[in-house]
């Protein structure tokens, strides 16, 4: 067990980012019915903005603020200007529309910043603390704290505020909610803003944990999709649990003989197992 602990702790940090990404996807899907395939690309742009700001010796807080503001602005612009034009289409078409945004953002980042991989080094990387003999950088600690705070805040928002009630109403009965006076465009826009904030934070953390490269960050959203699918694109607690589990299992998988080359398949295997189990449970019910 002692040899597993470093991998579990390391996986917990990545898993928290997967969980946070999954929450950002689920919040938007529950409100608007859009599965945002551009989530990772939006986060990549935010990470590059932070890298540029830090390269110009901006303070970390200001660089992070600029990055997250950028991701929110991109998400807001799409949700307010382009997404409504697809509102009459079914959920599949609206979701596929975000692929176009992802390709545009991916092309822009590679044109503006180049294709070479970088590392987003943060000032908090140089200091660390030990937990049960495992070294944790302050970046990981702060990242975990931010992830917990943001996920808790979204849970409270959905449960205890009028905008949260409107989001849940649209998720359950979109047409009826609109007839009863729920302003779908405003609620959807709020969901896009929340999703953009989550994308920005996740992009920053993943660029630090893994590496800063547009294609890598764009496709690192796949484990988040797996977590969201396990949560049935509706349950935040199940999505969070799945994200954490995927992160830790990915980390532990390197210890399995012969499994290391297939480590990237871990999210898909977990998602498939979750879908099968829930399908069986639904049939029995």
UniProtKB/TrEMBL annotation:
Chief localization: membrane
Record-annotated membrane-spanning stretches: 6-27, 34-54, 60-83, 95-113, 141-159, 180-206, 212-231, 262-278
GO MF, one example: transmembrane transporter activity
Record-level GO cellular component terms: plasma membrane
CDD domains reported for this sequence: TM_PBP1_LivH_like (cd06582)
Record keyword Ubl conjugation present: no
Record PANTHER family: ABC TRANSPORTER PERMEASE PROTEIN, BRANCHED-CHAIN AMINO ACID TRANSPORT SYSTEM PERMEASE PROTEIN LIVH
Protein name: Branched-chain amino acid ABC transporter permease
The species this protein was found in: Variovorax beijingensis
């Amino acid at each position: 067990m002692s040899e597993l602990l470093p991998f579990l702790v390391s996986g917990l940090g990545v898993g928290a980012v997967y969980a946070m990404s999954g929450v950002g996807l689920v919040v938007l899907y529950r409100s608007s019915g859009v599965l945002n395939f551009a989530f990772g690309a939006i986060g990549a742009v935010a990470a590059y903005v932070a890298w540029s700001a830090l390269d110009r010796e901006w303070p970390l807080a200001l660089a992070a603020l600029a990055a997250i503001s950028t991701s929110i602005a991109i998400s807001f612009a799409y949700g307010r200007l382009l997404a409504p034009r697809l509102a009459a289409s079914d959920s599949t078409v609206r979701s596929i529309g975000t692929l176009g945004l992802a390709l545009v953002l991916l092309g822009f980042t590679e044109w503006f910043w180049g294709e070479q991989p970088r590392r987003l080094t943060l000032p908090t990387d140089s200091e660390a603390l030990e937990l049960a003999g495992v070294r944790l950088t302050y970046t990981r600690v702060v990242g975990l704290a931010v992830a917990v705070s943001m996920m808790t805040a979204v849970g409270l928002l959905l449960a205890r505020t009028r905008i949260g009630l409107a989001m849940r109403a649209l998720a359950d009965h979109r047409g009826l909610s609109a007839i009863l006076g729920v302003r779908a465009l405003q609620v959807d826009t709020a969901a896009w803003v929340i999703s953009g904030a989550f994308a920005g934070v996740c992009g920053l953390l993943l660029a630090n944990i893994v590496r800063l490269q547009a294609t890598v960050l764009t496709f690192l959203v796949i484990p988040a999709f797996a977590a969201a699918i396990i949560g049935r694109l509706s349950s935040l607690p199940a999505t969070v649990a799945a994200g954490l589990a995927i992160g830790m299992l990915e980390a532990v998988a390197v210890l399995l003989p012969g499994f290391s080359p297939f480590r990237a398949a871990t999210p898909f295997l977990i998602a498939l197992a979750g879908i099968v189990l829930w399908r069986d449970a639904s049939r029995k019910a």
